[in-house]
Amino acid sequence: MATEHIQEQKTTDIKMLITKGKEQGYLTYAEVNDHLPDDIVDP
Predict the structure, then answer these.
(1) What is the model's pLDDT at position 43?
(2) How many CA within 13 A on the CB side of residue 12?
(3) HSE on the CB side for 40, CA within 13 Å?
(4) Cα separation of 2 and 9, whole Å?
(5) Which of 5, 7, 4, 32 minimizes the C-alpha distance to 18?
(6) CB–CB of 30/17 below 8 Å?
(7) What is the rounded CA–CA span in Å between residue 25 and residue 6?
């Protein structure tokens, strides 16, 4: 059940990021990287 909650939160965060990108017309690399798993991001 905790795993489902975490997944729901991640999905909500991504949807909010997409909405922000649509409103602004862009997203920064930092904004996108902040929502990627740590093992994917190369600082």
Answers:
(1) 62
(2) 6
(3) 6
(4) 11
(5) 32
(6) no
(7) 28
What's the rounded Cα separation, in Å, for the pair 23 and 6? 26
- Give the tokens for residue 36: 């990627």
- Regarding pTM above 0.85, the answer is no
Cα 42 to Cα 35: distance, rounded to the nearest angstrom: 13
pLDDT in tens, 6-32: 899 999 999 999 999 999 999 999 999
Model confidence at 36, pLDDT cuts 50, 70, 90, reads: confident
Cα–Cα distance between 21 and 18 in angstroms, integer? 5
